[in-house]
Amino acid sequence: MRGEKTFSFFLLLFFILISQTTATNYPINVWPKPTTFLWPNPKSIFLSTNFTISHPYHRYLTPAVDRYRHLILSEHHRPIITPAINLTSSIPLQSLVISVSDVTSPLAHGVNESYSLSTPSDGSASAYISAATVWGAMRGLETFSQLVYGNPTRVSAGVYIHDLPIFTHRGVMLDTSRNFYGVDHLLRLIKAMSMNKLNVFHWHITDSHSFPLVIPSEPELAGKGAYSNEMMYSPADVQKIVEYGMEHGVRVLPEIDMPAHTGSWAEAYPEIVTCANMFWWPAGSSPALAAEPGTGQLNPSIPKTYEVVKNVIQGTIAMFPDSLFHGGADEINSDCWNTDLSVQKFVASNGTLSQLLEKFINNTLPEILSLNRTVVYWEDVILSGNVKVNPSLLPPQNVIMQTWNNGPNNTKQLVTSGYRVIVSSADYYYLDCGHGSFVGNDSRYDQPPGTDQGNGGSWCGPFKTWETIYNYDITYGLTDEEAPLVIGGEVALWSEQADSTVMDSRIWPRASAMAEALWSGNRDETGMKRYAEATDRLNEWRYRMVSRGIGAESIQPLWCLKNPGMCNTVHSFTS
């Protein structure tokens, strides 16, 4: 009780001093930057070698506490620039006390992730984290771990933090169909996401290229559609990934993309897939059958399609406990469907391809909803200029839209229609952009010297720098009434030219930039964009991630970090 009273005093003092908070960098920083971070007299205190963390027992918080205690005592992080901080003469910090208001709240969309943290400056034996839920406590543990540094280990003293995210959905989407990623690599991704306070791993599991997910009721889909027996995710693998995510406060959102992007299904069920294994761009003036090599779309006109699809939906949802299920529904190709005789017959009977897509949605959406899931679809399902459904078929209370085209304009269209929105704009959040085209025999690269190379063959070029990502406001152009419908954002790594060998460097630290923008924003207390002061903080954070086993890409020469501010431009502080 005495510790709780002490912590209450810290919080009272903290709130009194909130108005004095400035955008000034401190000698030790936290990424993502907390919404309120107060350190009125920067100094540090040794950490006891017998340091303990007390907490309420919880299936997932307890292993997180064990993990962080080991990290805190063993990391011995050495900042690139030694912090100019005096040590207090106080006794070493003995413990961290965690209190949680609600230990029963599940890890679900919208869960409260707020926490408050204080470290003593007056010789008190304990630091304190107070959180609304165990998931907020995990965020506080990550923050505390970043306040610890040096050998012997010390911790920032006299720090007061109150923290909560602006957006509830902060994710990374990874495509594991075009190239396979082993389970250990997916676990490392989740680990890094947790470090950056990201909370949703959007797993784009299947596509036209391979079907690596083993579904017990449909074993042939992976048995014939995976690249090999070694490139499959078994139910045990899925359980391991989901449990690991829970222990790190990261939800796993599965995506089974359909009815397009399903060529791999044809290995087991050729009769339900149109234009499967056809050359993607026929000779002559014929239109392409897919956006890229790897053709095939489910045929909504035959009953067998729904037998298989319903087994896939049921089998996938049985393995993934999250309340969201991603049903894809992007990039329907008219010409692919038109290669099929049954589709031709449907159209000849005065049917349209949009009606064919509606038939698919009407047969699959109720199945997903019956399993107590909210459905996420790519925006194409209602915004495509070619094949789309009537929005009346997709009630906003049951459907979330994910936008990837046309920047803030499409976001505006979706929220105007009443949908909650996840932003993954290709102009800002696509991490695969800027690496050129992956197709062979590409005449665009056979040009005389001096030819303007344009975007280098990358449809979504140029490369999205961390500053591009950091500066994007995902509610840009929305009214105060519309903005709350944007629930968050996801960076996306499509894997045409990526696999586990480059995963870390493609994602980090650019995903860290989005993580801070969605957690505490990209502006300081005066409303100015803070990417200039964020540069040195992100540089330091990148080095710390590397020391924790994450192969994050360098963003500047080391000289820049050793000479803070010297690598900025004169335009650093424009708003």
UniProtKB/TrEMBL annotation:
A Gene Ontology biological process term: carbohydrate metabolic process
Keyword Iron part of the UniProt annotation: no
EC number: 3.2.1.52
CDD domains, per database record: GH20_HexA_HexB-like (cd06562)
Active site positions: E331 (proton donor)
Beta-hexosaminidase eukaryotic type N-terminal domain ranges (all copies): 30-147
Any one GO molecular-function label of the UniProt entry: beta-N-acetylhexosaminidase activity
Pfam families per the UniProt record, alphabetical: Glyco_hydro_20 (PF00728), Glycohydro_20b2 (PF14845)
Signal sequence range: 1-23
This protein's record includes keyword Flavoprotein: no
Boundaries of every Glycoside hydrolase family 20 catalytic domain copy: 167-521
Origin: domain of life: Eukaryota
GO cellular component terms, semicolon-separated: membrane; plasma membrane
Gene3D superfamilies xrefs: Chitobiase/beta-hexosaminidase domain 2-like (3.30.379.10), Glycosidases (3.20.20.80)
Reaction equation(s) it catalyzes: Hydrolysis of terminal non-reducing N-acetyl-D-hexosamine residues in N-acetyl-beta-D-hexosaminides
Alphabetized UniProt keyword annotations: Glycoprotein, Glycosidase, Hydrolase, Signal
PANTHER family on file: BETA-HEXOSAMINIDASE, BETA-N-ACETYLHEXOSAMINIDASE
Annotated family: Belongs to the glycosyl hydrolase 20 family.
Protein's UniProt name: Beta-hexosaminidase
Species this protein is from: Solanum lycopersicum
